[in-house]
Design brief:
Helix content is about 45%, strand content about 10%. The protein contains 16 helices and 14 strands. The strands form four sheets. An eight-stranded parallel barrel has the order 5-6-7-8-10-12-13-14. Strands 1-2 form a two-stranded parallel ribbon. It binds D-xylulose (XUL) and cobalt (II) ion (CO). The site of cobalt (II) ion (CO) has 5 residues, from loops.
Length: about 425
């Protein structure tokens, strides 16, 4: 049985190809800056949007055509869907996928039954991984959809919600390990608040810290050696999510002594919701040694929510790739398409167009970024811009050799600061355009 009979394996045909189901830039074996494209990106397909997304929005029902799906919450349907997912990922040529526990397997009437369902589906996931060579980039637990998490999971006012979430993460860690997952992600879900009049923020954050330590302890106990990741997002579904942006997450991880175990999984649309560019978030995490993985998508400049669109803008992907090259790449993380089709794009073939376009946009961004780096003008400009720190008073400050008295003495003698030079923003923006 095939779910996508009209699609062959997607191939690289080069920039002149007019075939919408071919790569024009993503050539997995092509080497850029010493690594193949396949190694640079470690592209990953998400189970939740791609195979469970219905296209429903607050105003209307789902629209996606999924002829392979019988619509039932049965384990057999979930197992059949796994085979469809792997057919898709294999034809696309992405080396990884990612899932939430509840995307792949239905909840049962009890926690025990739910765990059995997950085991039954994980068996097929493992079979399909072995058949295709596709690997698990990361697993995560859905701690936000079920009404039991109405007040959050580990940050709930109800200790039972914490306990249930812990049981769920325990199981999901076991499954992620069993499937050779290279990372394990915590995205906040409902870990945040709507109103501080009813919220003990300190207590909730302490509980979140405790929860993550328990997860780390259990992972070590069962021999899971993957990288733990936290995914920042400032709002949605709560008004204020605790893991709001890279800086807030890193501060949280430091405060709760978790930096040895965690890095960040940064998402473009979350960065922009936080009022940052993705480039900012990548640079922040990168220079702190906390860049783990990315969720590749984009928002819409006219819409203020998490639209999770596929990235197609070369300017964006070039900026992202400049940062990834600067900080030495992502492995064991990857470029994970946490992106969904528009509700109006409801045919199975649209899934291919979306992913092919996203992979190509990243490949093109990589080539642009590598060319900018090879040109060297940007690096040289920044180096020169800070050259006052390389010698003289700047070098002494950086070396910790100048105190306030010494600095005052220096300035009293010098009188005024010289020279001040232009930031040349417009010239540099023009320079970037030359490479696009
Ligand atoms: C939500 C989001 C999640 C995480 C995984 O905005 O990005 O899908 O990536 O839980
Ligand atoms: Co995400």
């Amino acid at each position: 049985m095939t779910a996508f009979p009209e699609v062959e394996k997607i191939r690289y045909e080069g920039p002149d190809s007019k075939n919408p189901l071919a790569f024009r830039w993503y050539n997995e074996d092509e080497v850029v800056e010493g690594k193949t494209m396949k190694e640079h990106f470690r592209f990953s397909v998400v189970y939740w949007h791609t195979f469970r997304g219905t296209g429903a929005d607050p105003f209307g029902a789902g629209t996606m055509l999924q002829p392979w799906d019988d619509g039932s919450p049965s384990v057999t349907n979930a197992q059949d869907r796994v085979r469809v997912a792997f057919e898709f990922i294999e034809k696309l040529g992405a080396p990884f996928y990612a899932f939430h526990d509840r995307d792949v397997a239905p909840e049962g009437d009890s926690l025990a039954e739910t765990n059995q369902n997950l085991d039954a589906v994980a068996r097929i996931l493992k079979e399909e991984q072995e058949r295709t060579g596709i690997r698990l980039l990361w697993g995560t637990a859905n701690l936000f959809s079920n009404p039991r998490y109405v007040h959050g999971a580990s940050t709930s006012c109800n200790a039972d919600a914490f306990a249930f979430a812990a049981s769920q993460v325990k199981k999901c860690l076991e499954i992620t390990k069993e499937l050779g997952g290279q990372n394990y992600v915590f995205w906040g879900g409902r870990e945040g608040y709507q109103n501080l009049f009813n919220t003990d923020m300190k207590r909730e954050l302490d509980h979140l810290g405790r929860f993550l330590h328990l997860a780390v302890d259990y992972a070590r106990e069962i021999g899971f050696t993957g990288q733990f990741l936290i995914e920042p997002k400032p709002k949605e579904p709560t008004k204020h999510q605790y893991d709001s942006d890279a800086a807030a997450c890193i501060n949280f991880l430091r405060a709760y002594d978790l930096t040895d175990h965690f890095k960040l999984n940064l998402e473009t649309n979350h960065a922009t919701l936080a009022g940052h560019t993705m480039m900012h978030e990548l640079d922040y995490a990168g220079h702190q040694g906390m860049l783990g993985s990315i969720d590749a998508n984009t928002g819409d400049t006219l819409l203020g929510w998490d639209t999770d669109q596929f990235p197609t803008n070369y300017y964006l992907t070039a900026e992202v790739m400049l940062m990834l090259l600067k900080y030495g790449g992502l492995a064991p993380g990857g470029v994970n398409f946490d992106a969904k089709l528009r509700r109006e794009s409801f045919e199975p073939i649209d899934l291919f167009h979306a992913h092919v376009g996203g992979m190509d946009a990243f490949a093109r961004g990589l080539k642009i970024a590598a060319a900018i780096r090879a040109g060297g003008e940007l690096d040289e400009f920044v180096r020169n811009r800070y050259s006052s720190w390389d010698t003289g008073i700047g070098a002494r400050i950086e070396a910790g050799e100048a105190d306030f008295r010494a600095l005052e003495a220096y300035m009293l003698e010098k009188g005024e600061i010289t020279p001040n030079v232009s930031g040349r923003q417009e010239m540099l923006e023009n320079l970037i355009n030359r490479y696009l």
